[in-house]
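User: Let's play a game. I give you a shape written as tokens, and you guess the letters that built it. Ready? Here's round one.
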């Protein structure tokens, strides 16, 4: 058994008038891909916020290995078609050293690597506003990869994409998982993607949770609101 990158032990959390989890325990083995699934409002985003240290548990612990380095990939939102920055500039937007646009050699190498890893090198000079939904989402992924994380949280990152583009993005994430050994937590409503691309799933339902290998996932017995496989915020 691979040593866990993350251990959540007897976690309880709730907002003042709304308990969300009671005694939640699970691990993310190093190099594993895990789906976090559950209906709207069950507490997926809140769990991510707890993992990121934005919220503190009411009880229990969240422990990462000392070398954990997190990259966070949000769902891309509307980007105006006139948005002028190129994909390359967008990718390095948050991690610029001083003196933009005169990057250090190290920053240039890191950018090249992140663009190559997301298959965006040939598209790097395209304006973000003109990029496809898949390219925009890959640019967000490249932004997260720029700091060379070993743990990636994909927060509904496939939700704005059409079916083929979802598959393409998940194929790419799987490739990064296999080649770089990245540990991945994939927040989604899409059971099909969870089953096809991740090793284990954490299903949150009100007052309960289930952590299993995805080859044991029986979509027919999953909560009805998840079965449609539809995600919020359809294609832009
Ligand atoms: N800061 C807050 N204060 C009080 N209640 C909150 C706060 N943030 C979220 N909640 C409530 O906690 C519950 C869980 O919210 P959360 O956003 O974690 O759900 P979710 O599973 O991510 O939903 P979705 O799939 O719609 O994104 C919801 O009822 C939400 O209204």
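Assistant: Ready! My guess for every position:
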């Amino acid at each position: 058994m691979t040593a866990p990158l993350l251990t959540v032990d007897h976690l309880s959390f709730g907002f003042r008038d709304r308990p969300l989890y009671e005694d939640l325990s699970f691990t993310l083995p190093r190099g594993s891909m895990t789906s976090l699934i559950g209906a709207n409002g069950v507490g997926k985003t809140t769990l991510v916020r707890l993992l990121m240290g934005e919220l503190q548990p009411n009880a229990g612990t969240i422990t990462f290995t000392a070398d954990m380095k997190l990259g966070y990939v949000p769902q891309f939102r509307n980007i105006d078609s006139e948005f002028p920055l190129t994909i390359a500039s967008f990718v390095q937007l948050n991690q610029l050293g001083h003196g933009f646009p005169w990057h250090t050699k190290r920053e240039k190498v890191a950018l090249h690597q992140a663009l190559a890893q997301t298959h965006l090198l040939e598209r790097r000079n395209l304006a973000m506003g003109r990029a496809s939904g898949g390219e925009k989402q890959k640019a967000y992924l490249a932004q997260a990869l720029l700091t060379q994380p070993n743990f990636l949280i994909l927060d509904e990152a496939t939700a704005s994409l059409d079916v083929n583009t979802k598959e393409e993005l998940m194929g790419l994430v799987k490739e990064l998982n296999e080649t770089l050994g990245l540990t991945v937590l994939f927040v989604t409503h899409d059971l099909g993607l969870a089953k096809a691309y991740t090793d284990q799933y954490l299903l949150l339902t009100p007052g309960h949770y289930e952590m299993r290998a995805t080859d044991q996932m029986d979509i027919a017995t999953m909560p009805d609101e998840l079965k449609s496989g539809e995600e919020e915020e359809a294609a832009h």
